UniProtKB/TrEMBL annotation:
Protein's organism: Eiseniibacteriota bacterium
InterPro entries referenced in this protein's UniProt entry, alphabetically: Cu_polyphenol_OxRdtase (IPR003730), Cu_polyphenol_OxRdtase_sf (IPR038371), Cytotoxic_necrot_fac-like_cat (IPR011324)
Listed Basic and acidic residues bias regions: 1-30, 84-96
Hydrolase found in the keyword field: yes
GO molecular function terms listed in the Swiss-Prot or TrEMBL record: copper ion binding; hydrolase activity; S-methyl-5-thioadenosine phosphorylase activity
Reaction(s) this enzyme catalyzes, per UniProt: S-methyl-5'-thioadenosine + phosphate = 5-(methylsulfanyl)-alpha-D-ribose 1-phosphate + adenine; adenosine + phosphate = alpha-D-ribose 1-phosphate + adenine; inosine + phosphate = alpha-D-ribose 1-phosphate + hypoxanthine; adenosine + H2O + H(+) = inosine + NH4(+)
Disordered, as annotated region: 1-117
Protein name: Laccase domain-containing protein
Record CDD domains: YfiH
Keywords: Hydrolase, Metal-binding, Transferase, Zinc
Keyword Signal: no
Length: 375
């Protein structure tokens, strides 16, 4: 959609936070106000690449919409500088950052913000995807941006979350639009009831009429599409290099602390996938530039994962997930991190933190085509 989304979001601040089950798990670490730089999204310029392999991706025209580069995780010690965390944090005094704390981010690039099918281009739906070639060719992992939907105000425009306070009819239309754009069957992806835990289930364990309480879904090639809902929490895909299995995770700070990423690696191991055979992609989430946390959160993480911030100390959520993956045996060179901070990129992403809870939800989606479908 358009840049007016950002303005609309800004104007809507101060609205009461709606009730809903699908909120980010940062309630113990809330900012009173988002940093000023969060309202100035970086320009999205660019091109569109075709993908090969997954059947949803075959017919992408080039040169349309936007692309934004993504960071590949550097080896330990190279992804930003860990500063001494401050321990004099107060809940009531969390002013926004000045300047551009986004400089903390790794500069290395590996991924894109783009649309993936003719339908998506026509509808104006943009989709963040990992860099081409990072995941096996039959694997689809992506996060549709907020563009291309019918929701208004703070939910503009492709809000997919029904529990966020948006018009339910708009959400249903957005979902239908997105399903059509990506070639997802009408009944939609398999989902779970997200509880900020570390449980990972199979699609069969989470039927639509009785969603499992879980924060991850493990699929085999040929399984239905699966989705998790995010707005600042990290969507993470762990994909076997042979394309046979994958796990999609919802990793906010609680699930990250609980090492859901390691749980995903173990579940894949139970299916015969060694950690060294896993490619991991950490999608757009809130970064240390905007993720000011209180002491009750900071104490749960090692110093390396805490970054100095003008307002106190911030959690480097994607780095925390990457380190958990490394601990579980995933090669650091097989882990990529999207550089987009959801809170900093308001033109593309909802941010629970930036918008103080009054915002939409993205769905991160995974599908593994059967190998016969991928050629
Ligand atoms: Zn979340
Ligand atoms: Zn940020």
């Amino acid at each position: 959609m358009t840049d007016h989304d950002e303005k609309t979001v800004s104007l809507e601040r101060g609205v009461e936070r709606p009730r809903g089950t699908d909120v980010a798990d940062d309630r113990e670490a809330l900012l009173v106000r988002g940093p000023a730089h969060a309202r100035a999204p970086r320009p999205l310029a660019g091109t569109l690449h075709g993908d090969r392999g997954h059947p949803a991706l075959g017919s992408v025209p080039r040169g349309v919409l936007r692309e934004e580069a993504v960071a590949r995780l550097r080896p330990r010690g190279h992804l930003g500088k860990a500063g001494a965390p401050r321990d004099d944090q107060h809940h009531g005094d969390r002013r926004g950052a000045s300047g551009s704390p986004c400089a903390l981010r790794s500069p290395k690039k590996a991924g894109t913000l783009r649309s993936v099918t003719r339908e998506a281009v026509r509808e104006g739906i943009g989709v963040w995807r990992p860099a081409p070639g990072h995941l096996p060719p039959n694997a689809w992992f992506g996060v549709p941006t907020r563009r291309g939907g019918v929701s208004r105000g703070p939910y503009a425009s492709l809000n997919l979350g029904q529990a966020a306070g948006d018009d339910p009819g708009h959400v249903l239309r957005n979902r239908t639009r997105m399903f059509q754009a990506l070639g997802i069957p009408e009944q939609g992806p398999v989902r779970v009831r997200q509880v900020h835990g570390t449980r990972i289930v199979t699609p069969a364990e989470s039927p639509a009429e009785a969603l499992a309480e879980a924060d991850g879904i493990l699929v085999r090639a040929g399984d239905p599409w699966v989705a998790v809902s995010v707005a600042d929490c990290a969507p993470v895909a762990l994909v076997a290099r042979d394309g046979s299995h994958a796990a999609l995770l919802h990793s906010g700070w609680r699930a990250t602390r609980g090492k859901i990423a390691g749980a995903g690696v173990r579940m894949l191991a139970e299916r015969g996938i060694r950690a060294s055979e896993i490619a991991a992609s950490i999608g757009p989430c809130i970064h240390a530039c905007c993720y000011l946390v209180g002491p009750e959160v900071a104490r749960e993480f090692s110093k390396e994962l805490l970054k100095p911030h003008p307002g106190g100390v911030a959690l480097d959520l994607p780095l925390a997930i990457a380190r958990a993956l490394e601990e579980a045996g995933v090669d650091v060179s097989a882990i990529t991190v999207a550089p987009e901070c959801t809170s900093c990129t308001g033109s593309a992403f909802y941010s629970h933190r930036r918008d103080r809870g009054v915002t939409g939800r993205h769905w991160a989606l995974v599908h593994l085509a059967r190998s016969s479908e991928s050629t």
